[in-house]
Amino acid sequence: xxxxxxxxxxxxxxxxxILRDVxxxxxxxxxxxxxxxxxxxxxxxxxxxxxxxxxxxxxxxxEAGIKIGYVPQRLAIDQAxxxxxxxxxxxxxxxxxxxxxxxxxxVGISVLLKQQMTSLSGGEFQRALLAQALLVxxxxxxLDEPTQGLDQPAVASFYRLIEDVRTDLxxxxxxxxxxxxxxxxxxxxxxxLNGHVCCQGTPTLVSAAPEYQALFGFGAEGALAxxxxxxxxxxxxxxxxxxxxx
Amino acid sequence: xxxxxxxxxxxxxxxxxxxxxxRAALAGIALALAAGPLGCFVxxxxxxxxxxxxxxxxxxxxxxxxxxxxxxxxxxxxxxLAMAFMILSFSGRMFTVDTMLGVAAHxxxxxxxxxxxxxxxxxxxxxxxxxxxxxxxxxxxxxxxGVGSASIxxxxxxxxxxxxxxxxxxxxxxxxxxxxxxxxxxxxxxxAVLVAVAIKIVGALLITAMLIIPAAAxxxxxxxxxxxxxxxxxxxxxxxxxxxxxxxxxxxPTGPSIVVAASVLFALASLFAxxxxxxxx
Lengths: 246, 281
Description:
heterodimer; A: alpha/beta; 3-stranded antiparallel β-sheet; 8 helices; 9 strands; globular; B: 281 residues; mainly alpha; disordered N terminus
């Protein structure tokens, strides 16, 4: 049984067709990643899935009563709104202080709780966004390019965090990402999107697909090589090295 | 409000309310209570022009109320609501929102001023509706203002978290299952109610000032949205009290005096923010 599934979903804005014939499904505990070039409709697809945008055609079926934790691609907090990290976490609807502290600890923002959201660095801000999404206790975590603006070590630790979260919360993760090499390592299912679903399946399957290679070219080959290399062992000594707070 | 009545000996409340100055103060304080938190949303969502447009439409509402001999409150409420929903549904089609608002706001204000000249009978003095006439607030007015403000506060309290999330990011709110259209509609209705309530107190031209200035003054001293809302109420009440006293003392127009007081408080708060030593992270 899928948490969420679409059937023949299409989106038109004016005369422009952004998405067509999208069939996908996300099951519990699955990490699904959407890859695709700019303007391929990735963000639109996520918006349809979370219910922020109605599809022009097709259906979206969500399992009754599922909770969605969403990390938007961009969130501009107006300087006019005072908002501490602690208050931001409170907007999750979970008010228990212990949960706040626990999640803040987990994503590494516990020393920032009294700071204003607008004073955070890029990496800290992304973590604060994720922390709120996690506090919702989501069945489905939806992340739109969660690692943009992060440096390489920060990206690596972010994806490790996502894998931990999946185990802890027993939730599914659906994300849009440009980090092809990491995607290929940590996803269960990859959807290659370009207005429509070009191909989808396991990372190995998608990497080998001609549609995928046509879209990503040599970068795709490299990603596959990296995937094979890194899949069988884990660099645990790099776990503590979160250096994205600069 | 109840505090002032509560501290007087029973039976004396009526005597005190007889005094026009007390009624004015109570009306102003009731307005400040609702305008504080609602004004925060106007500031956060950059709706200043939106507030202006609904307020200017209020003059058209006044003209129509006089023409059809219905309650000013009802007429203003209807005109403000109509204006608000018109802007909501038309904006973004061909012109940007600020152009739409510029046309709609001034069009409605001008139309109101023209229409009122066709009303037979006594020559109507619109000054009271443009700048307010807080000293003429009667018992019925006070009741309407009290009920209007209280309703706004109750609705804001119930929908606070939802409105905050929506203000921060609409998609985030949608993912949480919040009905965005509905919440936007509720906020719009609250603004229209506030305009209808406030027109008697500060007048159509200065309503936006009562929404924005206290909230803006509260910003530098606030850490959270709730602090800012509370501080905005405090600034609003201080502005009403000082404005009224100054107006009584020096015989200045009351509505503008209140707004001047609020502006001075805003200047002080901004100054405080500038000289306050920045705490290192």
